Amino acid sequence: MTAGMSDATGGMRDGTGGMSDTARLVEHLTGWIRDEVLKSGGRGAVLGLSGGVDSAVVGALAKRALDERVLTVLMPCHSEPDDADDAALVARELELPTATVDLTSVYDALVVELGKAAPDLPAHRPATANLKPRLRMTTLYAFANLLDYRVLGTGNLDELTVGYFTKYGDGGADLLPLGSLTKGEVRDLARELGVPRHIIEKPPSAGLWIGQTDEGEMGLTYEHLDAFVRGRDVPAKARRRIEALRDASAHKRALPKVAPRPDEG
Fold it and tell me: Of the residues 83, 86, 158, 159, which is catalytic?
């Protein structure tokens, strides 16, 4: 973020008195969220608050865009205890309205029932881990239906590029405010928006299991992903890994295919 002085509205100004690029981006995304929610007929917005930087930034932007017509939902599910504390910290510091829905018992009951039909499933980490974001998506849409809100996703460009999201889980949303931004750019926004430093600097994690981290699971650093999506050089090994993940996850970024009629070829 360009160094500068805060103006009366909280935006950062550059050394010449003009608004910094990051501050302009905040204004742009704030207006975009407001316009898209209202244009779709929504009254407000709801999002999941995980304790990570992406959801903190989306929450802060939504609060600026919609004031009190925003709801952030904490949805622990066999989660790291620190994540709940961090989510509460974000909500407190950014003055975000919150609700808490503990999904642990729902998740446990579902795994038991699935295990009755498929005994190998409870031990299959991808299958069970992805239940968590899908239960969270279901929860957010329940609130969206109740309040006539729109669901804001928290995925960034890095994650979208390599498919690092759960199909119809955290990938299920009405709007993606951060979908054109790299992880580094999201962190710049977080500093501009006053997100606590601890949240900005903590290792990113999707919270799929205890000890899980984004970079560890992807086998990539966000530094390399940032460079790749912006067309900069990255080591050959990282490039091959990114391209392989991008190609394998193409189905996640597409709408379901519709079968043609026989006479349509």
Answer: 159
